Amino acid sequence: MEEKKDLKLAVLIDADNIPYSNIKGMLDEIAKLGVPTIKRIYGDWTKPTISGWKSALLEHAITPIQQYSYTSGKNATDSAMIIDAMDILHSQKVDGFCLVSSDSDFTRLAIRIRESGMLVIGIGEKKTPNPFIVACDKFIYIEIIEANVILKAQKSTIKITTQVQTPKLDSIDNKLIRLIESSIEALADDNGWAFLAEVGALIIKKKPDFDARNYGFPKLTPLIKSLDKHFKVDEREVEKTHIKHIYVKTIK
Fold first, then answer.
1. Which residues share a beta bridge with 195?
2. β 194-195/244-250 pair status
3. 3 Cβ contact partners less than 8 Å away, ≥ 6 residues apart
4. Residues 35 and 13: beta-carbon distance below 8 Å
5. Which of 136, 210, 228, 229 could form a cystine bridge with 122, CB 3.0-4.6 A?
């Protein structure tokens, strides 16, 4: 999927189901996809369990929305976030939503927003239920974002003050290879070559949580190049520019 840099996004964060560590990494990731014009976080701020979020709110201009838990065992935060999302949707002030939560209760909300023709980006932990993941156009794992921040900090010799566990990488299996093969086949020309950017976009449509970083690669290109027994890569220079277009085909 090709995102526009100037998309206006509403970022809605579920404080009850998302860790407060590395909020900057999450917002930096969102900034790659669009401009977060609305940033709100929902929770019962009288609870000590989400107190860690408070220091990040002013620093990143996130508006806290107080939602008391009226009944024990019921998550009132979900309802408040869903109501706000629908209000924003009907106001037509944004082009898409970023729902930051690991809660499957937002599955129907994501589906409803997509039915309105808007982009839905999900961000959550690896424990996020699959129904919510596939309801989004694109889903990004927090663990991968945090690992990326650590890697950049190590390269620039910046000390990390918070301890973040290195995420377990997904294995490259036959299922992934078949997904890539079928995507290439759907887009290939008469000679079997497909434009890699379009292949990546189609893969995300089929599997919203696909990310080369999940497999230990910074981008899709090095991931494909590592599978040289299955795929062939051709880098073609664009005339009168320094840009290279990358094409890929399946080795049969």
1. 247
2. antiparallel
3. 32, 33, 34, 119, 138
4. no
5. 136
Q: DSSP label at 62? A: P
Cβ 147 vs Cβ 159: under 8 Å: no
- State both tokens at 237: 């220079």
The first and second tokens of residue 33, run together, are 């996809």
pLDDT tens digits along 200-224? 999 999 999 999 999 989 999 999 9
How sure is the predictor about 244, in pLDDT bands with cuts at 50, 70 and 90?
Answer: confident
Please tell me whether residue 10 adopts helix, strand or coil conformation: strand
CB within 8 A of 25, min separation 6: which ones? 145, 146, 148, 149
CB 12 within 8 A of CB 123: no
Three-state SS sequence of 205-242: HHCCCCCHHHHCCCCHHHHHHHCCCCEEEEEEECCCCC
Summarize the confidence of residues 186-213 as an average pLDDT.
95
Q: With a cut of 70, say whether residue 3 has pLDDT above it.
A: no
Task: Count the alpha carbons within 13 Å of 215 in the hemisphere toward its beta carbon.
Answer: 18
Nearest to 99 by CA among 112, 85, 86: 85
Q: Is 249 helix (H, G, I), strand (E, B) or coil?
A: strand
Percent of the chain predicted with pLDDT > 90: 61
Length of the chain: 252
For the entire predicted model, the pTM comes to: 0.84
Give 164's Cβ-side CA count (13 Å radius).
24
Q: Which of 6, 95, 11 is nearest to 61 (CA)?
A: 11
